[in-house]
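Why does residue order matter? Because the sequence determines the fold. Keep that principle in mind as you read this record.
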Amino acid sequence: MSKSEQDLRLEAIGRRLSGESRIAICRDLHRSESWFDKWWAEFRANPGSDLADHSRARLKVASVVSPELEAMVIGLRQSFETAKYGFIGARAIWGRLLDLKVEPLPSESTIQRVLARHSLTHPLGAGAEGAYYPWLVAWEANAIQATDIITRHLKGGLEIQNFHTMDWFTHAAYLSQHLDKTTDTACAHLLKSWENLGIPWIHQFDNEGSFCGGHTHPNVIGRMVRLCLWCGVEAIFTPVYEPKRNHQIETFHGLWCTGCWNRQTFSDLAHVVAEVPNFTHLYHHQYRPPSLNGKTPAQMRYGLKLHKLTPDLRRHIPDLSQRLPLTKGRFHIMRKVDSSGQVRFLNQSWLVGSKWIGQYVRATIHTAHKSLSLFHKPSDLDHWRLIEQYPFPIDEPVRDLLPPFRRNPPRCADCLPG
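Structure:
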């Protein structure tokens, strides 16, 4: 049976994310490179898109915004800002209004003007649309994992902190539930996820305090980053206020809410902990993510030899209630350059230059060299370019990576050179 156009588009995107070249994909699918570029651009603009054909029917566009519609736009933006998953910009609001069948439908520019009137936009440069974002590409199982927290409340107000970790390549996931999201809890979850899924080359996080080390001390290297360095893993942090840059795990949050949390009323933490394995099993063995071409996460992992955190390896990790020694290695931070030509991370501002305003840059901290390097990648077809370098003082010993954690990561260096 021949595949539909939508199936071909999904296959093309899935293969590109798996590391295949666009030329090989176009050759195999008998499609032009311009065809691929069109759908790759749509995927980059909206990673949650199903790549279906768009209706050519004209949309009704509002030129005047009523008070009721303006209130709806503001309410949607505020709800997006506080949510743990989803987009927050004018396009996201436009899409939600379209889903709600609001008529007349305002344009994105009209929505943007409403947001600006109420000071709900980011500064010039920092909020500019259209800047190229250098998406990471997973080349094998556990090449890249992502961890995020989604908070939900039980009846009565008790907060449940749901930690989710996903392998980008196979979509396999590990979940744990807690009453807090402290660094101790975050590190414990990370170790259990590596026991179950395997140790990745790269692990992506957002800027939650328990992940990044807090928002107080300059040049802080938190315990989560130290744990990654100790185990030979390169941590990478997404831009602030851009959950779409972690869209794989954000999409999983939505699946989990729909398939588990929203289906019943949980009484306490123990109830949640008892029920989540049922969802996890169902997800791994029955759910077929669009990018996996009809396979389940369990099928993608069948027969793979995975580098897991075994009890023997675990014994080489010191007590996590104390600050881990610093290990030689690298970690990375993605940021968009603000209107002053600077980026802010590790509780300090760093000058990039006015030339780069509105562009995404990657900061790489190399603990062995005690250096901070800023890189820019102008397009999908270009290589990373070093644009600035700073010393990064470290006032403590930096130890070698222990032999049990040493691996040879050829593609990791290709993915994030420097």
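Residues 58-62, 123-128 have pLDDT under 50 and may be disordered.
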